[in-house]
Amino acid sequence: MTAQALAVRHAHDASQTVQMIKNFRNLRSKNKLSIGELDLATEAALLSLHTSFETFVRELYLECAIGAAGMAGVRSRLRAATPEEAQALIAGDRQFLEWLPVTKTVDRALVHLRAGQPFVRLWGRQQILRHLDLMQVVRNRVAHSGEQAQRIYERQVSKGDVGFDRPARWLLHAPAGKTNFEFMAEATIAACKDLSADSRTPQMLGPAVATGGQRAAPGTYRCEGCQRIQHLREWGVIQSCPHCAKTTKCLACARVNATASKWTLEALKAVR
How much is the CA Rg of the chain, to the nearest whole Å? Predict the structure, then answer.
């Protein structure tokens, strides 16, 4: 299946889950559904959304690995004729592969796919990655009853708010006109569309920002302060802007503190 077809399938599934929750909330407002039933339906929808996105990531990766994704500039380093062969090569002696959180797949792509394309497009997109990471944490809390899943959920999501002890309560919370569930669904749809597009520059993932001194992807960067351009030909440390980075010396201990500049990625380097 082509990358575009995989993305369309997930967008349809994600939109269906969002609409389903809206329908259940409407039934709850008419007292035709109990709070407990709404909670169960919401958490089930989250599991469905997570599974659909994970399936997209896995199938797109394997299609890219065998050269069947139908995307310009995506080249595999593996010699595999079928998705099954590709998965066996990638897994090695492991019984199963983890595809989420998606940053694991980005790291894997840098090994198996030339320049990490297309998954490297997610690099540095902190706004979208935040929603995807939260989806993973909430999913683990719903799917597992272990102390570790509970502890991570409390630290990263509920943050001591007893109103969010139940994941469904947090998923249905609307901090900015949309529920957290809707934000997650939209994040998965945006990721799928930009990962499956022929353009190397994502249109829906928001800006990728790097800090001076940080390891960064190859590409063209613009300083957020003075608009200077910096090019990275390969993965490496992006230098602080000589014009905007500032250093201050502590009068007490003589220690020099540096303020790193911020760089916005304008275009990823083309695959050669």
Answer: 21
